[in-house]
Each structure stands twice: as C-alpha cells, then as structure tokens.
Records
---
Amino acid sequence: MTIADLLKQMPDVRFCSVVRLNGKLVSSPRFQETRIPDNAVIYLLPLVAGG
Amino acid sequence: MGPVKLNEVKTVSYDRAEVIKGYTDRSLHINLTGNDIRIDAIDAAVKDKFIGGKGYDLWFMWQAVQGATKWNDPENALCISAGPLGGTPGYPGGGKSIVTTISPLTGAPIDSNVGGYFGPYKKFSGFDVITLTGKADQDIVILIDGIESRIKIFNAADLPDNAYDLSEALTRYFDEEKPVNISVVTAGPGAENTYFGCLNFSWYDAGRKRVRYKQAGRGGTGTVLADKRIKAVVARYGAVSMKSNQPADLEALKTVTKTHAKEIHELDGKQNRMALVGTTHLVPIMNDHDCLPTHNFKFGSHPEAAVIGEDVYEHIFDKGFDGCWRGCAVACAHGVKDFSPFTGPFKGTRVFVDGPEYETVAGCGSNLGIFDAHTILEINFYCDAYGLDTISVGTSIGFVMECFENGLITTEHTGGLELNFGNRYGTLELIHQMAKGEGFGAIVGKGIRQMKQIFADKFNADPGFMQDIGMESKGLEFSEYITKESLAQQGGYGLALKGPQHDEAWLIFLDMVHNFMPTFENKAEALHWFPMFRTWFSLCGLCKLPWNDIVPEDNKDTKEPAKVMKHVQWYADFFSAVTGRETTPDDLIAMSEAVYNFQRVFNLKMGYGTREHDTLPYRAMGPVTVEEYDSRRDRYDTQLTDTYGMDISGMDTAAKVAALRKERESQYEQLKDAVYDRRGWTRNGIPTKETVQRLGIDFPEVLEVLAENGIQ
C-alpha cells in the first residue's frame, strides 16, 4: 500500500500534504510512489504553515 | 578578549513603575545627542488603540520622525517594545521583543520580531517601550537596570567588535554572579558597514552556561543602532514568574498557559518536531513542493537538498533545552557547539553557532547553490557575529551570482572573486568583506536595490534583466520562498507593509497545494485576515509559531482549519487573563487592523505606501528566462493552453515566456485591486477616510497625511 492509497481510505484529509513515515518526512508529490512498510508508524501533518 | 572598560557618563535613578495587567504605562526616551533621558506616562488612549509592541513602537516613532527623515538622521528612532503579554514564562513563544525604525533599505518603517530576554526584562524594569534617538559622539553602552532602578550611559572603548564576544563580555561584566539576569542587544561590524545590519538579542543559557542570541534580522535595525554609535543596550532584571505581569486573572492565565503548553508537548513530536529540528523540517518539504529558493529563486528544488535539511541538522544540533524565552514548549532555537570555522577571524577556534533556521539554510544554502551543512553553519555564525541579516545576505549574494554567471559583472568588478553558484569560499569572503566595508562586499552590503543601480551605472549591466531577477520589493530582500505558483503569496510578499517578509502572510500551501482560495475574492479575504492576525502577535510580544505550526488533532474537523480557531480562542483568553479586557477572536483582528492601517499611512508619510510601491520583480511571478521556463515546461505549457486558451503550437519558448508574463502580471494587478477593496483602501492603495475613521485612527496628523495624498 502506498501513502496515496492510505489517504484515499481516510475521511477529510484535504489538508494533508506531508506525512511522517517512520520518522521521515514524505511530501505529497511522493505519496503515489512511497510504499508503507509493515508495522510502520505514520503521522499526518495537518497543514504546513511556514515561516 | 581583555577586561571590559566602561566609563560611566550619566546615571539616572528612577522609581520603577509596577507592572499591572501587563503594562507599566511608562515609556523611556533616550536622546543620545546630549544624553537626555526622559520617562513619560503613556496616555490611556494610546494604550487602547495601539495595544503595545509594534503598535507602541510605531506610535512613538511617528512622533519622532518627519516625512523627510532619513534612516541616518539623528531624529530617526529605534524603538523596542515587548507588548502586554510578553514576559509570561511557560506560555509558548511568550517572550518576544519587537523592534522598529526607519529602514536604511526601504526608507520606511521596518519591524522585526525577535526572541531573547531583553523585551521582558526591559518591561519588568519599568518600561513598556524604549525609544533611542540622536547620535552619540563616541561609542556608548546603555544599561537599563531594573534591579537597582537606574539607567546608565557609559563611554565604551576597546570593546570586542563582534556580537559573539561582546554579548558574552557584557553579560559577565554587568552580573558576574547571576548572568541569567542580563540580556544584551548588540549589532556588530557588519551592521556598521552594510544597510542590512541585524540586532542580536541575548539570553543566558543556564544549562550550557553560555550566552545565546536570536536576531531581529530584517531591514537594517542593526545598521541604525551602529549609526547611533550604540555598541549595546543592556537590560538587567531578576526573578520572573507568572505573577510578574500582575495579570488580571492569574488562575485563568495559568489554565490557558498549561493547556497550550501541554498540547505542544504532546503534538510537536508527531508533527514538525521543532523541539528537535527547529524549522529545518521545512527544507525537504519546500524542496518537494518546488518552493525552495535555488540559484537566486530561479528553481524551486535541487537533488542535493536532503543534505541541508532536518535529517542532517537533527544530528548536528546540540541536545538540550533551546527556548529563547523561559519555559517555551516549542523550544526551537537550536545551535551547534564546538563548531570550528575554516575562514575568518575565528578560523580554527571552537565556537557555538546559534542556528541555523530554515531561512538561513535556504537563503545561504540552496539559493547560493551551497549544499553543505558545515558551510551554512559558518555563514550563519559570521552573519550573527558581524550583525548581518542572513536573509538579505543570502538573497543579495544570489543576485550577485546570477549577474556573474550571466556576464553582467566580471572578476574585474568583484576583485577577482569567481562568484559562481556553489562557491563557498567566495561567499564567505564576501561576508568578511561586508563586515569590514571593503572590496566588492562593500557594494553587496548596500542591498539589491542599490546594487542594481550601481551595476547599471558603473558596470553597464542590463537594468531590465536585473529588475526581473533582483529579488527585492520596496528595497527589502525577499525571504526564502518561491512564489511563482501561488498568486496569493505573491500578494503576501508584494502587499506586505515593510517589504517581502513572510511574517505577514504565508499562504503558499493553502493556495498552491490545497487550492483553498480559488478566486480573487478568496485570496483578498486571506490577505486581509492572515496579515491582521499575524500582526497581533507583534502587538502583544509573542511568537506566532505556537499558533499554527503545531495544530490540534481535531483541527481538520473545524469550520476554518486554516485559521486554527481553537488556538485563536486561546490567544483571546490569554489577552483577557493578563489585561482584564474581555476579548474575543474578532477583537484581536480589530486591534491589528488599526495598527496595520496606521503603518500603511506611516509609509505614506515617508513618501511610500501607494500602489506603485507594491510591485514585485517578475521572477516572483513567473519564469524570467528560457532556461527557467524549460525547467517546468509541462506546467507552463499546460497553463497557456488550458488556463488561458492559447494555441502554442507555433510559439518558441521565448514567445511562451512573454505570453505567460503578460497573463501573470495582469493577475497580480487584479489581485491588488481585490485586496485594496477588501482592506478599505483606494485603488491607489491608500486607506480611505472612512477606513481610518472606522478604525479610530483618524487623528489630525493621519488625516493631514491622507489629505496631502488626495484623500479628503
């Protein structure tokens, strides 16, 4: 399963453009290509505020 | 470093005003021409309308300067205030100072929000705001001693030139036994010799037993301090607690402080991890979204960006508590110990580097083609020690490098420096030259606006191309975000009162990634609300990071997630608890709107503040060169065909660049109209009489400035 697949299954994730996958940042342009390994810990970063 | 020698030339004892509900209701004015020291009561009407912080700074600056005042005239005032909520220990980001002055870069008011303990210590010593005017006839140090209730002016000779040693020396000098009682504001030799000198605001890090500092970076505040021949302003104060502000409702203050701090402790580790990596998490995120300035904002990403982001700095940063105010839960002010520079006066020694933050990494790293964490640390160290703003340094040198690579300037002009992108030694050499005011660095230190003029007049460089690629607006260098694909953020930069700094509005993701504001009216609404709310932090002496860089887990379920209204309500509660003034979220916006519009009129008073000054270099809007267009050819081709309905089959790239430019420049002008309408300004960008009346800032002097500009 990729990050994009996971997000498709979740409600109201429109503000999620970055996640932490096992501690590493993954941004939305890479959601499609990034596979989620078994037993991964994933946090959705709610929105990027900047500055 | 020898012993500090200071000769006391003036001492004034005073009755320290009690802090009640966050205010002392006293202002301190020091005129260095004659060493005049005056303490005034602050009028209740000023308090009601200007709130504190930046509001107070601007009000007292307005009284000090005339429309014709230049940055280096004696009457220019350097103002520092903390705001009524500043100095609340434990409240995340609760100890900021706000500095304003007439900027050497822009000629208009600049404001800068900075950590360190000075603002709170100054307030607890009896003063909501201090104004420094005049010029000393020799180097001086000012002490505001809240423990002994004395203000002292010293003649200072043979002090260390650099802020790194000077902050440490003065901290030890003024309270050897309890250095934590001292906060020092310094500039440095770079501030004396450039137009973008910064101020370093210190605090004593008791855990590491050393002096640390944060920077009021933007717009040349340090240059003004140096021009007044002030080597340092020192505040001395003792124990601080939650009672120090004598809040109206201590229990309510404790509750909201604990609630906000607890949430940050629980969520930061799951979100941006700022307590571990500061703001360096933004480097890979911006890179992935094509927003990381690379090679003078030409590109938005680079394959090597990973080596200058959080993955590297997390392991380099020294472990320990890194709050720039007491008990701050965000604690993002990281640093690196035992760093050994490979150039300059500290070469081969071991120093502590405060930073880097995202802006420094992007501006002095990727933007210069330098993908080396060590070199970025060295640039960071010297900029701070010399008193140079890392944003203006990075953006200015990026401009120089692109000019060099395009043959607009050559080694004949640079004193032999091969200033290609990626030249680490050349960059550091330029910074050392800036500090001394020597060589080509002396020209770079004047900032991009003046460099464009000098390169055109003296080096015969193409002024049109430099206008397009010189990343400045209003005379201030851009902070470090690519805005080409976010019209809203183009407005966030171009319509910012002081120039292109992201602290007014940061809308890139809401606009570009989430398409949250598809219409001009949506964008205009955002360019009203966000600058107003962000302004409020600087009225009160707070940091904005705790507002929306760590957000509640249920934020997405709220009506307006982008505003993080749960936190906005907490800030209203915070304000009510300290000041006793019952406050709603809407009240916070109203407070800011009055000060914001006053600042716009202040710009007008100084000869700016109209539509023509809200312009951007085209690179902020779209691709200037064929190379730039080709780097995102699919994106731009699609926009020309799908968005603008053009047939591009017979167009070469140069023609496409021109066609896209026409559309994007037109969009930006339409955005200006929409924003001016929303803010209650004329189409020339001036607040209407009705607007200033509605906001209660229709003072005679404000109406006079409006009348002089055709607003009756």
Note: Chain B touches chain A at residues 270-272, 281-282, 284-285, 288-289, 310-311, 479, 481, 502-503, 506, 508-510, 513-514, 544, 547-549, 551, 553, 555-557, 561-562 (CB under 8 Å).
---
Amino acid sequence: MIYLDNAATTKVDSKVVKKMLPYFEKEFGNSSSIHERGLKAKEALENSRRIIANSINANPKEIYFTSGGTESNNLAIKGIAFASRDANKENNHIITTKIEHKCVMDACKWLETQGFRVTYLNVNQEGFIDLKQLEGSITKNTILVSVIHGNNEIGTIQDIEAIGKICKKHGVLFHSDACQSFTKTEINVVNQGVDLLTINAHKIHGPKGIGALYIKEGIKITPLNHGGGQERNIRSGTENVPGIVGFAEAVKIADKKNIPKMEKLRDELIDELLKIKGTKLNGPRNNRLCNNVNISFKGIEGEAIGGDLNDNGIASSTGSACAERNLDVSYVLTAIGCSHEEGNGSLRLSLSKYTTEKEIQTILKVMPKVVQRLRSISPYGKV
Amino acid sequence: MYSEKTLNRFRKPKFSGEMKKADAVGEVGNFKCGDIMRIYLKVKNNIITDIKFKTYGCVAAIASTDMICELIKGKTIDEANKLTSKEVVKKLGDMPAVKIHCSVLGLNALKEAIGNYKKKHKKN
C-alpha cells in the first residue's frame, strides 16, 4: 500500500515504539505515586515534557499533556472562554476562521450556545486570512483569536507571527492549532507571539491518543477535566506515560532534512497531476505544508477516485460530500471558493518522510488511468 | 465499508456507456449532492431491451446504477417501475446507511426515463 493519507494519521516510527515499550510492562508506574516505579514514570514524564517544550521554545512548565489535538483545542478555546468570562462577564467574543479543524469549529459553535459571540474570518482563494479583517474584528470584548497554523485539507500555512503581533497589540490571547504543521515548519512560540498552541503525536509518527497544549505562563484557563489534579490542575487524569514518552521521541527524531525532501515530491506530484486536463490545485503554491497536495478533478467524484486508487494500492482522502457523514462538501473547500463540483471532485494526497520518488512515479502512472476510467462513466466526463 | 459485490460492480460496470438512439433518457441529481445519474432505455413492445447509464458519483452511486440496469433488462416498463431501493441494495449485498440514497437516486433516474418514454408514447 502506498500510504498518502498522512494528514489523517502517520505510521509510528519503530524508534518511537521501541522507546514506549518499557513503559507498558516494566516502568508501568503512576507518575503520581511516591515509590520507585512512580518516580521512574515521573522522571520519564518530565524528561519528555522538556523535549517537547524545547522544540517550540517553551518552558517545560508551559506544556500540558492531553489526549490529543481535539482535547487540546477544546481545552484552549473553552478553557480561555470560561476563565475570561469569569473575570469579566463582558469578555465574550472569540475570533476564528472558516477553515479550522472540525473540533475548533464545533467548540466555537457550542460556545455560541453558551452566550459567547464568535467571528469566523473569511479566507482568500488560497486559504489565507486577511490580517486587516482580523484586526478590524477585534473589539473590547474580544478574548481570544484562534487560527489554524497549517490547514489539514489544503495545506495553507498562516503567518502566525503577524497574527501574534496583532493580538499582542490589542491585548488579545492567540491560540493556534499546529497539529499539521508541527515539525513540518518553524514554530517558536516566543518569537511568533503564540499564547496557546495545540500539538499532537500521531501526525508526526508518534502514537495516537496523546497531545499537548502549550499555555504561556500566567494565562488563566478553566480546566475541562476535574479530578486528581494532574498537569498542574489543568488536566486531571493519570498521565499516559507510554504515549508521552513516544510523543517526545517522535519530536526528538523529527529531522528538518525531511522537509525539503517532502517539498520536492509534493511539487512533482502537483506539477504532474495538473497536466491532466480539467484539474485545479486547491490551496497555495507557496507557504504550503511540505506534505500536502489537494487537487480537484472535473467531472468525477472524489470518493470514487479514492475507491479506484485503493484498488490500485494507494491510500488517499477527499473533501467530497459523498465521503462525509453529513453529506456536505468540505467547508474548507467552500471557504476558498470551490464550486460543488470542485469540492466533490477533490482529492487529498498527504506525504510523509517515508514517501519515496518511486511511489510518486507509481501514482503518476495510475492517476491518469483512474481519471479517464471514471470520466468515461460520468455524464459530465468530457472536459 | 462496501461489500465485494458493490466493489466489483464499481470496478467493472456492465452497463456504463451512452446510447445513440435511445427511446428515452432520464437524468436526476446535481453537483451539490454529489450524484448525477443518467439512464438510457431502448424499449420494444413495452419491454426494456437495452439499457445504459452514465453516473457522476461515488462508488455506491456507480455500483447501484449498474445493478439497476441489470435488474430491469428484459422486464416490461411497468415491472421496471416497481423496482425498489431495497431490492437493489440486497442484490449488492448491503450498503452503508448513508449510501442508500444513491440507490434511490438511481431509481429516480430510471423512473424519469420511464416517465419520459410514456409521455413520448402517448403523443405518438
């Protein structure tokens, strides 16, 4: 199987698995316990926290482990919303974008039912927000700006440094969901002015079920989980030590050299696929995640393309309505101005450090045949 | 997610294609919902002697239209008109719940074609 669905999840690196294994049967202790086993777990936990903190230029005590990206985003948005409103009931406005991950979108929609007001910023055809619209949307009631760093569908990388500056100028907190961009582009929470940052392990060849939220020191946040007071009372629940150790190892072995390698394969894939008639690139050419390709094919539907690719041993993804549980075209593609036909005909191929030139060549051989076959079945296949 | 029967139909549809001198054509759907089905009929003495389809849509959409074609070939138009989505899905060896509407849409295209045939026939 040629696996090109790395934006969904990645293969766990064998080095990561190896690091994790002792923490299941040997060093299985609860990091809150006071005995030897507990201390060993605590040591592993704090060592991992340091590695992850260093990778984004944060202080270890600013890293809070969670169950993953969804929980980190929920904690950031709801936690800041409640803590801010508790401080002053007029603090009720949040700014986000129309291309956030579903968990940010739905957390914001839910907060609207709890009396908060949310502004969803537009994006241009390449998926970039307008910094002037952002600044113009900030009011005296605004508490938080949440903008996804690297978009999971179309790969757009927002200028978080510029966003950070605007937020700082107006005294508004800035959260960014960096699950897709983490280790794939530069992140430095201090230089870029990020107050809260969501990261996770399974997008970077680490295990599923583990993530972290960076919360700048001094920021008040209301916890969502109440209980044993782990993670400095912000996230109760026994820490997932094997997961945390694996997460840290994935961060440690992430090699910057893989970025240009993936970029080269990505560009080759984009350039060659666009040679097929009736195709269109979704997302930008520059400031794009090094592993994201998203192309729309005229006259055919994405789930069917994915079905044919699967038959050819290639794993892909689509923003088509047919592949969605709610039978709607991807709202991200809609936000960048894609028509229903373009949205339904979209295909996402997401690379990893394991993707090879040979695999790209295989896809480029298979793809025209798949497109031609499905177009021959389609009533609108003549392009 | 899909049964082997559905996948095989999708991989090798038996009835996909156009028909130059069809006696009736029916088309339903739009790009918004993600499925467009067009069915061509050849009718002789009230019997469907030949049938072709063109489908823009997902795996389930393509497989169900092809199955519909197979189930009604050689049937009278009244028999064909009675075909239900349940029968189509059963023949395909079940389908995810969210995909059942694909088979309904295919049947709507068939009914549209039959309706068009009947209208034309009355006038003549």
Note: The two ends of chain A are 30 Å apart (CA to CA).
